[in-house]
UniProtKB/TrEMBL annotation:
This is 4485_t:CDS:1. One of its GO terms (biological process) is methylation. The keyword S-adenosyl-L-methionine applies. CDD domains: SET_SMYD. Keywords: Methyltransferase, S-adenosyl-L-methionine, Transferase. It holds the Pfam family SET.
């Protein structure tokens, strides 16, 4: 078995060598030396050999229908050799089989990007076939044709994933492109009738949706996909581990440092399946209007409508400000102290990088939750700065994630993730920053941000408060958040008298002039909570029907 495996590995590497030679002979100006594997490298580099072994095991698992094992093997292969497009392409299929089309889209595109390392495609900005190579192996196909086959596989899997996400316009475009190149490829690696069937199905579902939901349906499916996400992926155990005794004791210590009136506790809620979650309870009687605790935000972001300090969100006056001294960076702070704090936490990695495209789209948002995209940038920057996965950041790993089975996948997720990875110069093979990590970060942020609008009702500022975020929801809360700009602290104030041992609660949905039905619906959409209080219980059947309906769009 070992000899057979090594023979296949050597054969595959021989093909890469031939591809390198052909590229060098035909167009030496586009040879990417970093992507060219040699037999000598295979013999001397255990990582290359390990990647090929993992691909072999992944293919074997994929063939037998063991998609979880296939995912694991391909992922370990990518860690060892991220420049193998087949690893990305095959992992995209494993994702598709496991019911994660949102991850299939990214891996399929990543496979195509990696193939671009072998042959330059700068003359053709759209997905296209690569220049055929002259070297042939024993199946009669040139290496260029083999790469073309792999590209078709990646595009077809992306088409299937886009259809599963109900992003029908993109799926239609991808299918039409595939059908348009049918005559250019020798040995098509799948049945073309499947592409035609998928195209017709997408067109029909798009038309049916337009008839059922009206003309706005097309706009929705161009901007939102729909997928199943319950707050975590099966390989990620962090949400279970967040309730560990070590994390609990750490939170208890932090709470005791900022308030003697409350303590952290483990609580259960029927609305959340009676699972344990963190909460805050009063350690003594608390009078109405009493300040319960104060916390300095871990992270702040602002949309840029008003000139504010990037670190603390304090409005910066023209004559009192500190601009980052690094060439090419114009980030503004209150003073040098805020700059130094930001630099040590995240700015060192972000300094001078262009995230204007993300800011431009964020400014079009109608809710402060749109600012969560800016937090994702900083979380990834902190992760890189600390050399850890963003989900393992000490200050946030205890937070509960948004967990609704009927989630939406904003198309901008794909674009923003790519911008962040590129600008922060994170290697594609560093799977601590994989796309599922980005989705999980956004899920964490969706549940735990406190935002505010400006005097024109535009999303203006938002903060991440790791300890105040432990406070749970109640439609009749006994506390409400306050902000003291002079000392940059956020606090909790008692709305009424609170008894010793009583949980401290706030309203997660506290919009002016909102009726009970709308609040109940927003709790479900934004936080995954099916509230059963006396105010919300009359709308339980409405929420059940809403949950099962098509086109559920969460606030992004």
């Amino acid at each position: 078995m070992e000899e057979e495996r090594d023979r296949k590995i050597k054969q595959d590497l021989d093909l890469k060598i031939k591809a390198a030679l052909a590229l060098g002979q035909m167009c030496p100006n586009v040879v990417n030396k970093a992507a060219l594997a040699t037999l000598a490298d295979f013999q001397s580099n255990p990582r290359t050999k390990e990647a090929m072994h993992r691909r072999y095991l992944g293919n074997k698992a994929l063939t037998s229908g063991d998609y979880k094992t296939a995912y694991c093997e391909y992922s370990m292969g990518i860690v060892n050799n991220p420049d193998d497009p087949a690893l990305w392409c095959n992992r995209s299929l494993a994702y598709l089989k496991l019911g994660h089309p949102e991850l299939t889209v990214v891996d399929s595109k990543r496979a195509i990007e990696v193939m671009d390392k072998y042959i330059d495609d700068s003359r053709n900005k759209k997905p296209g076939l690569k220049m055929p190579l002259i070297t042939k192996d024993n199946d009669g196909l040139t290496l260029g044709q083999k790469l073309s086959q792999l590209r078709l596989k990646a595009n077809f899997r992306a088409s299937q994933a886009l259809a599963n996400l109900e992003l029908f316009p993109d799926a239609i475009d991808s299918c039409e492109w595939l059908l348009g190149v049918i005559d250019q490829v020798k040995g098509v690696p799948f049945n073309w009738t499947d592409v035609r069937k998928l195209l017709e199905e997408c067109k029909k579902r798009l038309e049916d949706g337009r008839k059922k939901h009206g003309p706005n349906y097309v706009d929705r499916v161009e901007n939102y996909g729909k997928y199943t996400f319950r707050g975590k992926y099966w390989w990620d155990a962090r949400q279970e581990n967040r309730m560990s005794e070590g994390i609990f004791q750490n939170l208890a210590r932090k709470i005791s440092e900022i308030s003697s009136k409350v303590k952290v506790a483990k609580v259960t809620f029927e609305e959340w399946g009676n699972e344990y979650h963190y909460g805050i309870k009063a350690t003594s009687n608390i009078s109405e209007n009493t300040l319960i605790l104060e916390e300095v935000p871990f992270l702040c972001v602002n949309s840029g409508f008003t000139k504010r300090c990037d670190y603390c969100n304090y409005e910066v006056k023209k004559k009192v400000k500190y601009i980052c001294p690094k060439t090419g960076c114009k980030e503004t702070y209150c003073n040098i102290q805020c700059y130094q704090q930001a630099y040590n936490l995240y700015h060192k990695v972000m300094c001078g990088k262009d995230f204007s495209e993300i800011y431009k789209i964020v400014k079009t948002g109608v809710s402060t939750s749109s600012l969560s995209h800016l937090f994702a940038i900083k979380l990834f920057a902190i992760g890189k700065n600390r050399d850890i996965c963003p989900l393992d950041i000490e200050e946030i790993k205890h937070l509960r994630r948004w967990a609704n089975a009927y989630s939406t996948m904003p198309v901008v997720f794909f674009k923003f993730y790519k911008i962040i990875i590129k600008n922060l110069e994170i290697p594609i093979g560093d799977l601590r920053f994989d796309f599922w990590v980005y989705i999980s970060c956004m899920s964490t942020l969706g549940n735990n941000l406190f935002g505010d609008k400006d005097n024109q009702s535009r999303p203006d500022t938002s903060v991440l408060l790791p300890l105040i975020s432990l406070i749970n929801h109640d439609c009749e809360p006994n506390a409400h958040p306050t902000v003291e700009l002079n000392n940059r602290k956020w606090g909790l104030e008692a709305k009424r008298n609170i008894k010793k041992g009583e949980p401290i609660t706030v309203s997660y949905v506290n919009w002016p002039n909102m009726d009970d039905e709308e609040r109940c619906k927003r709790l479900f959409i934004q936080h995954g909570i099916k509230c059963k209080c006396k105010k919300c219980s009359p709308f339980s059947k409405l929420i059940e029907s809403y949950e099962k309906s098509e086109g559920v769009v969460a606030n992004t």
